[in-house]
Amino acid sequence: MINEEKSLNFLEEIIEEDIRKGKHGGRVLTRFPPEPNGYLHIGHAKSIVLNFGLAQKYNGKTNLRFDDTNPVTEETEYVDSIKNDIRWLGFQWTEELYTSDYFEILYGYAIKLIKKGLAYVDDSTPEEIAASKGTPTEPGKPTPYRDRSVEENLRLFEAMRDGKFPDGAKVLRAKIDLANPNMHLRDPLLYRIKHAHHHRTGDKWCIYPMYDFAHGQSDSIEQITHSVCTLEFVPHRPLYDWLIEQLEIFPSKQYEFARLNLNYTVMSKRKLLQLVNERHVEGWDDPRMPTISGLRRRGYTPASIRNFCERIGVAKRENIIDVGLLEFCIREDLNKTAWRRMAVLDPVKLVITNYPEGREEILSGENNPEVAGGEGERDIPFGRELWIEREDFMENPPKKFFRLAPGLMVRLKHAYIVKCDDVVKDATGSVIEIHCTYIPESKSGEDTSGLKVKGTIHWVSVAHAKTVEIRLYDRLFNVENPAAEEDFKASINPDSLQIIKSAYVEPDLLNADPGKGYQFIRKGYFTLDTKSPSDKLVFNRTVTLRDTWAKEMQKE
RNA sequence: UGCCCGAUAGUAUAAUGGUAGUACGACAGAUUUUGGUUCUGUUUGUCUAGGUUCGAAUCCUGGUCGGGCAACCA
User: In which residues does the motif 'KMSKS' region occur (predicted)?
Assistant: First the structure.
């Protein structure tokens, strides 16, 4: 293929068409509108990459707007974490805005609607209002307050603002159509009374606008050109348009896409909050959580997440993405950037019987074989006794086992070829030592032995090994779609975290940089846990390496 | 059984009336001092029934299946 296919998603097509027609002078302004009532997760990342990406692609801008219209659930802690996560992902918003900054304007919009005879104060209880809306198959009926005069509505709404009524005593409703087949148009609530402290406006207000009377209006105030949200807001769109039309304000347009679902995890803030509150995980940033902060602590990079969000595409069809694609994206990134190190997670001792007692050598290994020059080398001490991985030895191996077994030879990475001669067992019959002889002329880089071995294994010198803690993570749930279960918590994977209290690593790892990814050769990608105690290092496994041998073994 | 949205390989996503393509996965092979990486190849798809058309994944109609909508949440 000579010229690159552009292959636009449906939003890019809409925007390009708008630009072609000169709509808004070709201006593109999107917004990312989180409610500060929880931490951002990978689903938000899709929306962030989409909104910021669209603006970048079309020379536009993106506002960050906190949708803070419900003081009961919203907190400043969440505002800070959200800003931090967006920056970490690599995006910078044009303006930091809050719906609560528009409360006065919104109040004015409500007055305008009342004056046009398009809104009324309703004294009904929540139950009465629900009943007044009817059901999807039956039209609603007006409540006794629907035909109050403009003057009375004005007076009552002002009294609501002035705190004359308790919570729930009255609401402001749009006067549209109680028989409309779209439930959202059956006189939707616009304002409710909540005598609650707001994280930004304090106690200034005791009435707060509902989502439908805040979101579209905020879009309009900011002159957002393309307001991109998820599918569940499709039925709200007629109301979004109706309010803008009646208010005669800037005509922002809403477009909807299908939210991200990942298998083997949950994505709703309510469920994630439950996992945190009920201590199924350590917190919002537990490395098993699909939150941005969890993925960060796990060792995912911003580039890998951005890349993932681009690969999954954007459409209007419900989807469940295989978490394997996320893993592919982080491996792809880390393979190119992670420095290689050796670590033994499940050690057994290997003794080189023909290597002089007390002798040691300093060998060297390139940091990154994926880059020309290897990004330098580090020293690796070698000696007569080594730790190797227990699974790299088998007494009675199957035919295609390319590791250590009596009579077989392997290459010790960056070192020598060794041949297994003997094993030492304890009283219970388990192997405690593997005795080998090494081939002196097979040293890495100056091998004149002429020997060819199929396998190469990693190792750490017993005399120089450093002890660290390693945490291995697995999927948090045992079923593909936990949200579809009766009780999603019943399918929590009890083995999602495995802690290895003492693993042996090469000494250079004591200099590991926080925030950097390391490949423990043949074992996976790891990163320093940001909450390691100062007296010991803890490494989190980001993801395993692809393991075709393990897959082969499973087939048998 | 009211209204709305959707349906293309296992999972996603293109093809905008003219050769059904791409990525991930799976499978096979080559290379490899990581059973990693890289490279090559193979496999699998238009929900269904009609209609319009020289020609339909695409347009029309009916059906089927999936999802959403009746919070003083967003």
Answer: 266-270
Q: Which nucleotide lies at the shortest CA–C1' distance from A6?
A: B14
Q: Which residue is nearest to nucleotide B38 (CA to C1')?
A: A370
Tens digit of pLDDT for each residue in A213-253? Answer: 999 999 999 999 999 999 999 999 999 999 999 999 999 99
Given A398, A429, A458, the domain boundary residue is: A458
Tokens of A184: 């959202």
What digits encode the pLDDT tens for the residues A11-36? Answer: 999 999 999 999 999 999 999 999 99
* Residue A304 included in any domain: no
Q: Distance, angstroms, CA A242 to C1' B66?
A: 30
Structure tokens at A529: 């846990």
Q: How far: A116 CA to B39 C1' (Å)?
A: 70
**Do A452 and A491 have their domain in common?**
no
Phi-psi group of A28: left, alpha or beta (phi > 0 → left; psi -120 to 50 → alpha; rest → beta):
beta
Residues A436 and A332 in one domain: no
Give A199: exposed, middle or buried? Use CB within 10 Å, 0-12, 13-18, 19+: middle
Measuring alpha carbon to C1', the residue closest to nucleotide B12 is: A312
Element (H, E) at A347: strand A347-352
Are A437 and A531 part of one and the same domain?
A: no
Q: Which domain holds residue A499?
A: 269-298+313-339+468-555
ipTM value of the model?
0.96
Same domain, residue pair A452 and A496: no
